[in-house]
Give the backbone structure.
Amino acid sequence: MIRGFRAAVDGFRRRLSLVLTYSGKSGAVRRYFFSNSFDGVLAMMGLTLGASIVPATQVSTVVFAGLGMSIAMLVSGVSGIYLTESAETERLMKELRDSMLRDVSDTVIGRAGFLGTLITALVGGLSTFVLSLAVLSPYVVSVFYAALKPTAPYLSAAVGFVLLFVLGVFMGRFSKADVIKSGIRMAGLGVAAVLLILLLEFFVGSAG
């Protein structure tokens, strides 16, 4: 059973790799995954940390606001990437049609173009959604486990920093750079975001 499952997974990966290769979307999938993941993590860190410095903010308010933002980023990511990459695929199909003097939409390349666009959109949208929910997860858990409420902001920030570091490590692997430096650099952007939020809180508090 395990061998059959592994064979099925390997077969799926090979077909996926072929689709992305024929459609020319391999690079786009990586770019959208990293950029959208980064956006999702930082956006949710901004929401949770910003809420944590506002007095008497209810955990349920943060959770509902975070869920709403995650869903909005999912819809925006999938639809925006799909429309953008569809236009790029249509341009490519037109160039192939003009050079080959035949319609290629019903060929392997044409079908791969459609599937590659769909896969790219799903990867870009879901990466934002899943990782933003991961940052929000301490708040979600604290709704059901009240003892976690005081530490939810710190746990949420910790999850965000870890995710940023891991994203930086993988980005370093793809770019053949120093993975540790790449991870630290990415996490450093999260630190910069936190400092900006705290600076904003300082000025708002001073003005009040």
The chain has a mean pLDDT of 83.
